[in-house]
Automatic annotation (TrEMBL):
Coiled coil: none annotated. This is Putative 3-methyladenine DNA glycosylase. It comes from Nocardioides albertanoniae. Its EC number is 3.2.2.-. Keywords: DNA damage, DNA repair, Hydrolase. It holds the Pfam family Pur_DNA_glyco. CDD domains: AAG. One of its GO terms (molecular function) is alkylbase DNA N-glycosylase activity. One of its GO terms (biological process) is base-excision repair.
Amino acid sequence: MSLGLPDLTCPVTEVAPGLLGCLLGVRAEDGWAVLRITEVEAYGGDGDPASHAYKGVTPRNQVMFGPAGHLYVYRSHGIHWCANVVTGREGEASAVLLRAGEVVEGSDVARQRRGERPKPRDLARGPGNLARALGINADHDGADLLGQGAVRLEPPATAVGGIERGPRVGISRAADRPWRWWLGGEPSVSAYRKAVRRVRTAT
DNA sequence: TGGGAGATCAGA
DNA sequence: CTGATCTCCCAC
């Protein structure tokens, strides 16, 4: 049960569960929407082979090495955008992947961005869908979450409880680490899937 | 409810 | 060539 925002400079495995229930507001070109975070994953920290920062700084992951409280956005599978909250001390890359949430404001805009197909609970289910529902893209990479900018992170509106924990989704390395946390009973939480290596393309 | 395949591209 | 994914389609 947390009240305010967690201290983002703490170790990522402590910060991650503290982000559950927090609110993330995003202003994009086509509108403003707010989301209640219901599922997260920790990356980085001490030698995490599943982290984008595992092999050091690159143009893509440089935001992860910066100060806590900024948004790290990357392109996934050439199709989706995924958003992370950078944590820890400057220089030591670590971040919390936002995997799912419940849209609490601007659901009309979110619906417009996601299309008619998905059910209400699927609006921001899964990291790619979450980013799309909020209108997050490369423009938001590096955004300061604690100021009055386009992306803002705010404390939970109500007490948070019922936190559950388990292995991360869709990764092949260090797949056994229980670095995913979610709010039990929340319909927006991703279904667990093991990582599957693609076999090959014919010919 | 869950497994399998395709889409599509940036990173190393 | 692989991947911190999603959606559609099919079997059970």
